[in-house]
Amino acid sequence: MATDSYTSITNPYEPSKPLACITLGSVTKLLPTNYLNWQLQVKAFLDGYDLLKYPDGSLPVPSKTITTTAETPVTTENPAYQTWRRHDRLIYGALLTTLSNEVASLVSQTKTSHGLWTLLKNTYAKASRSHLKQLKERLRTALKGTQSITTYMNFLKQTGDLLASLGSPVSIEDMTDYILRGLDDGYRFVIDRVNARDNPITFDDLLEKLLIQELSIVVVQQQTPAPLTALNALVRPNYNNKFSPTQLPAQSNQHPGNRKPFLGKCQWCNVRGHVLSQCRTFRQQHPGIPPPPRDSPQVNTATASPPQTDFLVDSGATHHITQMTLQIWKSIIPTRVLTRCSWATVQVKTSLTLEHF
Question: What is the Cα–Cα distance from 155 to 151, expressed in whole angstroms?
Fold first, then answer.
């Protein structure tokens, strides 16, 4: 991690005045948007080392040469100038390390620390009309986007402070409007509450409320939702399987003697306790016709096909109730009955019996 340091090196021109070699590793890199913050940091360090007089121009530049006042004047190199020059070059190099690449290209033509300092001040802190308009437009179009609340608020604060240093301060209400305008709908709760206030809110109070809301948004986003299939298993009952796997073995292990007796009636003899496939009367009366098998419940499906007028599809029902039985028989007799087995027997309450196949 870069740190700040101050070391002394020997000055051959004036041994009693050693040269100061400094590094400004902890200073924030200068960008086009943070000049005021950068200036405050650099000024504090240079003033602490008693070197601010070089970049701000308060130390006069010594002459390069000196001339004796003897009868025969002699011009020699001025040791004070060499000391100043080397000091200034060391400070100039330290300042260059605090500039971003974008800003460093702007000062590539400067030669002294004072020239660099003056150029940056005129570029980013000059109270010209176009510069003030540019800074105000920066506030008006600022958006939070994906950056954090801290970064977003610091950007607006630095721009507002720079306008204040140029003699055009931003009021508290205007700064609040700029901040709220750049927020997304995730901060709608804070926006509505601030707009409902009767008195303006300070920058620090607004920052605190936005940080709390940002923390709430992060907590909600970090919560992992349950998988959709798991939710369906929890909230949707299983209507397809009426018996759970644990119930099936219990049913299969039941002894036949423990089952309840069949209480239905036979479709042929109307006697309770058995069905047509077990009816002895039917077998005696029709020994050549096999009884229908006692199948398990089935699902019959129908597909779309061209209409046929001479077929009547079997619905699978054993009884039908109607008030117009004779008309039904008259419509059925001339047609062919399509069933799933090789025979069909229909018995009607009017004592009319039809045996087909």
Answer: 6
Give the tens place of pLDDT for each residue, 277-308: 788 887 877 777 776 665 545 445 555 455 55
Q: Which of 292, 289, 288 is nearest to 267 (CA)?
A: 292
% of the chain residues with pLDDT over 70 = 69
Per-residue pLDDT at 283? 81
Residues 336, 310: contact at Cβ < 8 Å? Answer: yes
- Beta strands 344-347 and 4-9 are unpaired
Give dist(CA 21, CA 9) in Å, integer: 7
Delimit the domains of the chain by residue range.
1-125, 128-239
- Burial string for 106-120 (b: 16+ CB within 10 Å, else e) reads bbeebebbbbbbeeb
- Which residues, including other chains, have CB under 8 Å from residue 220's CB and lie 6 or more apart? none
Tell me what the mean pLDDT of segment 158-174 comes to.
90
Q: Tell me the helix, strand and coil percentages in the chain, rounded to 5.
A: 45, 10, 45
Residues with Cβ within 8 Å of residue 194, at least 6 apart in sequence: 176, 180, 201, 206, 209
* Residues 295, 284: Cα–Cα separation, whole Å: 22
Instruction: Look up residue 276 and give its two tokens.
Output: 């047509």
Half-sphere exposure of 109 (CA within 13 A, CB side): 4
The pTM of the full predicted model, rounded to 2 decimals, is: 0.50
Which of 47, 184, 192, 314 is catalytic? The answer is: 314
Q: Which amino acid would we find at residue 183?
A: L
Mean pLDDT across 120-145: 89
Annotated active-site residue 310? The verdict is no
Q: Tokens 């509450």 map to which residue?
A: 193
